[in-house]
Amino acid sequence: MSKTHNGVYFVLWIISLVECKIPEVRVNCIFSEDCILPCSFTPNRADVNIQWYQQEALILRLQNAGERLRNGTVWLFHDHISEGNASLLVKHVDIRSKGRYKCVVNNATQTYVIATVEAPIRVISIDTTPSGLIQCSTKDVYPPPMVQWSTEPSLTSAALQPITRMGPNGKGLFYVETVLKQQNNSLEYIYVCNITSKYGTQSWTASLQLKEITDSEGQDLVIPCTAPKNFKFSTLVWTLTEANKTTEILKYDSWTHKTTSFRDHTKLDEENVVKGDGSLTLKKPVGSDHSGIYTCAFSGIKTRHLIQTHVNITYSRHGKDSTAYNLWMLAIVLGLLALLAVTLLIKRCKAKSKRSQENAQADEEMQRINTDKPTEEPQAESKLMTQPLGSSS
Predict the structure, then answer these.
(1) Per-residue model confidence (pLDDT) at position 148
(2) Is residue 157 within 8 Å of residue 149, measured between CB atoms?
(3) Looking at the structure, do residues 35 and 69 belong to the same domain, yes or no?
(4) What's the predicted TM-score (pTM) here?
(5) Which of 26, 47, 140, 307 to pair with 296, CA 20 to 30 A apart?
(6) Cβ atoms of 129 and 182 closer than 8 Å
């Protein structure tokens, strides 16, 4: 029995050595697209028997009688079989398409294929949330990617403390949302979010810089927007967010050098934007119409850079409105001064009239006094003259 067992082990060892010599190919298939799993052989006979297995389960067999498919999702290049091409075409790849495949031609294994499935990152976004967090996100990716935050100037990961959430959707693909708190001196930093695919085939970067501007209405305002050094962008888009509603106000295409404006009173210097200066000019902004969050977004290959500026236009008066306002104010001041002068004049006249009346009364009284004195003295003298001489005793 021992010799028999040893013989069996020897045969299995030989088979394992043979299988080790069978080539193994790795293929990365893109989700929802077609994918080719290669298999070639040396044609040496008219009749060919081809079998394909996925995880040891037979999914396709081709014999002289014809072709047999499962679910219509895998195909052979029938016209090229005579040339030794037994490659498998997987139609509309999904998550179930991944795994280990085996190609067998005429009962001999030709190739092992390790198929991975990837839904690549196609878009990445970065923004601030209503609660003041910095949020970076992507969607419809597979497998779940890796996320990393950084800042310029650099801060430690302990200072950033990001929170990342991932979850599958109905198709088995994943969404990614990662957030972190703004720093106390947030206007001094550029926040950088990097999302890398699990297989390392892609790496997307989005960055955000925050700014604030306060200015008076009625005069032109320039909102700065400068691309990072050596940043090659394809488009520049300006948006305005008011009351949680975001609208596109201007777009520039670097390939056509064409600017499209969706709102009046906005201007972009096309000569400067070619050099990376996409600053926006607001012509005589009005507080109620032009205050809000202005965002300029440079988009390049797998890269986005945003500058988000909180613009506050304060109430002011300039131009014709200012002239009319100043004339009204001048008229009011002159009216008040005239009223004050008239009031003082009336008071002065009344005071003068009162003094004149008092003086007249005083003069009349003095005159009456002076008139009364001469009549009293002669009467006294006449009494003395008419008094009898004897009466003195």
Answers:
(1) 95
(2) yes
(3) yes
(4) 0.71
(5) 140
(6) no
